Model the fold of this input.
Amino acid sequence: MNERPLRSGLAAGLLFLFAQTASAGMFGLGGDEKNPSITLTPAEIALDVPMPVQGEDLSKLLAQTGSGNGLSALKEKAARKFTAELQRRLHTQLQARFTDEHVPLVQQGGNLMLRNFLDINVSKQLNNMQNSGGKQVEKGYVTLSGSFHLRLDNPTGTPLREQSVDIADLHVREKYQIERIAGSVGKDTTDDAISRALQEMVEELLDRTEDQLDADALRDLVSAG
Done:
């Protein structure tokens, strides 16, 4: 029996099988190269937050400053703080999403450019007010409303895909509590509630936009464009 043709045929078959599995992305080869690169631009955010002080604390501050300028500065400072926090949370979550999808992120010159626009209003809804022994406890909810808009552009800036979300439809609501003793604030969890609400909103938005940002959808978008 001639074994040489048999061995040659077996070797050729193994080489063909390896080539096929490698091109299909097995053994970690070839898969990531097919995914388009993304340039992730900083989100454009307009954020309105409640006045950091209210009630008797607001009256005291007005009496001390003699005008509303100090209050405006406090509100703007709070808005800047939570805007930076929202910017960071959204960017981090998107980075993790694209890493999981094996979509490369580049500083510039990506096959696609992702732009996000948020116009968010943070509100406090009073639920209960208790007064006992000189101690006042205010309980309520932090809620969010506004809009979110996602846009994927080609390298020249032409929009290829867009999606909008009404923030109120996400039904984000987090509890807050303020304790006052003899008119002075002893405990205020409003900031923590706002942070939790923004985190929940980001997670909900990523769920809503999942089909737009997965690797298959991005490849199809680049091919069609």
